[in-house]
């Protein structure tokens, strides 16, 4: 159930891109307004993640998960019936807030629900695959849905998942610990306001950097966002009950995972945008055909998450899994960097799609599981929030930077100049491959070897003080 909700959350991140032209025609929206239909969700998703993570710790992950899912489901219904840009953008903001609350709570619930190592590996494997599959499926299913049922259908498909998940959550997921029920008063309000404002302003500035008309204002806003971020850190250092305890960054698995996950987002998210642009504008693929071109990413992600990832995680550990996943992504992106002007799908695109289908879930589980499991149970929500916020920031930076690099490398060519346009796309794919390689190297240098079968659990090593085996224990944070 948790993994099905995860698929829908990430599906919404990419599905809208295919439906934007029809939304623009039906609602009479210009390019700038259409951009905010997408950006409103992304900004709210990234901006409220820390608050969502800490709320899961203080109020209980099941309670917070249900609240976020309720908001996400209601917002999806409003988005589907929206008759103006204002209503649609407001619904997208609420969707983003709901997703930001749900994702950290999901990870906290996975940790407390699956305590046996093999079951936990399997659970995190499926969860990670659903995130990767959702990103690919969003592009794949949005075309047929939009062509067959209109753009509201990409929002309405969230409703049955949300309603069913809400109905079964109390029966299937463990109750929140009693100690969390009265903890709402401990929420760090100054930190929540300052931190959320910093992330929202920085996110907006990143989006605005991509537009020449708003670039000068974007740099100013970026400075404001950095100043707010500095104020947030000062507040957290002095707070008795901080939103984001700074002591957590002494846990190498958390701080290292946050850095690497930023690169994971910066590397893989632009790939879908570059490929969609190239296939639709240069190869003249229809939205449906373009979406189906990346469907193998989703199919492979789901398949290997249930077959290969759990035993591989058991055998080689999370760090090596993360490094292998990033290496597979780097190879996929390098393969796409040689994509010809006249594409033959099977030799030119399919191998890269299959490699991404392996690399994305491997990286997602490899970067998430050790970070969440390395901290005390009371901090799993905020740990998940930190790591996922890093990926959202990386995604925004990556899309903005990579598309700008591709445009510059093409000499500003339009899709009518196929050769020059292809040159720009090639440079974009090379850049994403380099980011994945950097993430792989940082994984090997920053993260310690995670436990494999036959080693004691992190909790056990924390209590025994065993120094013979590399650790991922949360005691470093205390």
Description:
With 478 residues, the protein is an all-alpha fold. The chain has a single domain, classed as Growth Hormone, Chain: A. The chain has helices spanning 2-27, 31-47, 49-59, 61-80, 85-113, 117-149, 153-156, 158-172, 189-209, 215-238, 252-282, 287-293, 295-307, 309-336, 345-348, 350-373, 380-409, 418-446, 458-464. The two termini are 34 Å apart.
Q: Proportion of β residues?
A: under 5%
Note the gap between the termini.
34 Å
Structural domains: how many: 1
The sequence of SSEs as H and E is HHHHHHHHHHHHHHHHHHH
Could you report the average pLDDT, rounded to the nearest whole number?
81
Q: How many H/I helical runs?
A: 19
The top-level CATH class is Mainly Alpha
Q: How many whole angstroms does the radius of gyration measure?
A: 21 Å
Contiguous low-pLDDT stretches (5 residues minimum) are 180-184, 450-478
Total number of strands: 0
Structural class: mainly alpha
- By CATH, the topology is Growth Hormone, Chain: A
Summarize the structure.
The chain has 478 residues and is mainly alpha-helical. The chain has helices at 2-27, 31-47, 49-59, 61-80, 85-113, 117-149, 153-156, 158-172, 189-209, 215-238, 252-282, 287-293, 295-307, 309-336, 345-348, 350-373, 380-409, 418-446, 458-464.
Short key terms for the protein model shown above:
disordered C terminus, Growth Hormone, Chain: A, 19 helices, mainly alpha, 0% strand, 478 residues
Please outline the helices and strands.
Elements: H1 2-27, H2 31-47, H3 49-59, H4 61-80, H5 85-113, H6 117-149, H7 153-156, H8 158-172, H9 189-209, H10 215-238, H11 252-282, H12 287-293, H13 295-307, H14 309-336, H15 345-348, H16 350-373, H17 380-409, H18 418-446, H19 458-464
Helix pairs in contact: 1-2, 1-5, 1-6, 1-8, 2-5, 2-9, 2-17, 3-4, 3-5, 3-17, 4-5, 4-8, 5-17, 6-12, 6-13, 6-14, 6-16, 9-10, 9-17, 11-14, 11-16, 11-17, 11-18, 13-16, 14-16, 14-18, 16-17, 17-18
